[in-house]
Amino acid sequence: MRQSSLVVVANRLPLDDNVAPDGACEWRRSPGGLAGALHAILEQTPATWVGWSGAIGEAPRLPDIGTLRLRPMSISEDELRGYYEGFANSTLWPLYHDAVEQPVFDRGWWETYRSVNRRFAEAAAEVAEPGATVWVQDYHLQLVPQLLREMRPDVVIGFFLHVPFPPPELFMQLPRRLELLRGMLGADLVGFQRPQAAHNVAQLAAKLLGAHGADDAITMDASPTAPPATHNRTEGQRIVRTGAFPVSIDVAEMRSLNARPYVVNQARRLQRDLGSHKRVLLSVDRLDYTKGIEHRLTAYSELLRDGLVKVRDVVMVQVAVPSRERVENYRGLRDRIEREVGRINGEYGRVGEPAIHYLNQPFDRADLAALYQTADVMVVTPLRDGMNLVAKEFVAARRNDTGALVLSEFAGAAAELEDAFLVNPHDVDGLKETLLHALAADPADLAARMKAMRAYITANDIHAWARAYLTELDLARPLVS
Ligand code: ADP
Ligand code: F6P
């Protein structure tokens, strides 16, 4: 087995299999913030990515991507149910997103979550060379840092959570809270999107583990099974560093797409097909209940009902890529959204002039860039989101200083893109007003906002994120006294 000095461990590999129109199987970048973010930085780095290909059963053989080796993990049907659809996406995902849907606590899922985490840790231990850096990603693999530490005390371990970390009172509901906290704190550096998350973890570490928790470091007992440490012990203690590292996008990739003739022509064609004189409201999401799609449809539908927006002047494009389709909550959401889109088009559309274009399909990067260029108002309204890279992609995709970004206050991106039109998506009246405000905004105001947001993401792109995290991780090499 070839070993690497940098190993990334994530639930998903950055590739999805896709059946091409001619029936051939091809590999395509998987939708989702994590894959996009890491793909950009690892393509030219000698590293190994341990993850799942999305196929059930035996792991497929996959080609390297540039200098990046892929180590596919097999996932069985039972594991998919208990680990991915169950504990990760029906327990942790809703709980970590402010319980906007009720988390399900099913005792049967835990063992599967734990055993899959162990298999991922074993695979990472196998491909990590002595003293390697291992970077574990997201809530699916929250036990891996501690498991890996036990298997390979020589490696330096980072953990990054792409989603929000909940307030202590929500985390405390988790039946397996102690194991999950210890698992994550097996890392040398635990990174979050927002500083509040580090604060929440420090409070929990103090309460549940008797650790000394500050917002940038947690001092805790080195032994994972030891009883809670007393505050003044100095021997056998570990320091776990924590901090906020807001994830970003590959701005250069988006700029080079912008300049491609295909993208420019495609954007022109889209504008013509949507109606040359029409203002375009665009949303691009995984079809997920955290994204606030229903709130946004309600706001748009009421604007049409009240005659404040007319189908002859404005059109909405909602891209909603299928996601986690075997999880009950997601199926129900898709049904509700499709019914509502049908209702809105039935009530307000005209022949050859729908109120909403609804696209439930994956797009490649060039077509996404063309869509972003066509939007007059990008509408990003999650009820809770760790970051939301779509908001940043929209800003990077603009070729000039036009276009407005309407952005939920509950997306991590809102703390950085302060020049967006910030909105509380739970307040449908406020959302309607903000949409009207963005549609009517003065071009000089829009230009000033867009310039400021573009400057921000240019200086804080995905490469800056990876540099900041990996530099800090290097400083956090184990300190056991
Ligand atoms: P999440 O990680 O919750 O999916 P983000 O907004 O952070 O949310 O990231 C979504 C990523 O998925 C973005 O990079 C976006 O371009 C990509 N994406 C969204 N919709 C599609 C689609 N229909 N086809 C391909 N990629 C998509
Ligand atoms: O960004 C959050 C996240 O859960 C990633 O970990 C994940 O890859 C992405 O959303 C898409 O979700 P999934 O992998 O379940 O399709």
Short description:
The protein has 481 residues and is of the alpha/beta class. The protein has helices at 33-42, 77-96, 107-127, 144-151, 168-171, 177-184, 195-209, 251-258, 261-274, 293-305, 328-348, 365-374, 389-397, 428-439, 443-459, 462-475; strands spanning 4-12, 15-19, 25-29, 47-52, 68-73, 128-137, 156-160, 189-192, 212-213, 217-221, 237-244, 279-286, 314-321, 356-359, 377-380, 404-408, 421-423.
Task: Walk me through this protein's architecture.
The chain has 481 residues and is of the alpha/beta class. It folds into 2 domains: 4-248 and 464-475, Rossmann fold; 251-459, Rossmann fold, CATH 3.40.50. Helices cover 42% and strands 20% of the residues. It has 16 helices and 17 strands. It has helices at residues 33-42, 77-96, 107-127, 144-151, 168-171, 177-184, 195-209, 251-258, 261-274, 293-305, 328-348, 365-374, 389-397, 428-439, 443-459, 462-475, and strands spanning 4-12, 15-19, 25-29, 47-52, 68-73, 128-137, 156-160, 189-192, 212-213, 217-221, 237-244, 279-286, 314-321, 356-359, 377-380, 404-408, 421-423. It has a 9-stranded mixed sheet with strand order 5-4-1-6-7-8-11-10-9, with helices on both faces. Helix 10 (293-305) packs parallel to helix 11. The longest helix has 21 residues, at 107-127. It is globular. 6-O-phosphono-beta-D-fructofuranose is lined by residues 12, 32-35, 138, 162-163, 286, 323-324.
Hetero groups in this structure are:
adenosine-5'-diphosphate, 6-O-phosphono-beta-D-fructofuranose
How many separate helices? Answer: 16
* Anisotropy-based shape: globular
- Counting helices, strands and paired strands, the structural category is alpha/beta
Percent range for β-strand residues: 15-25%
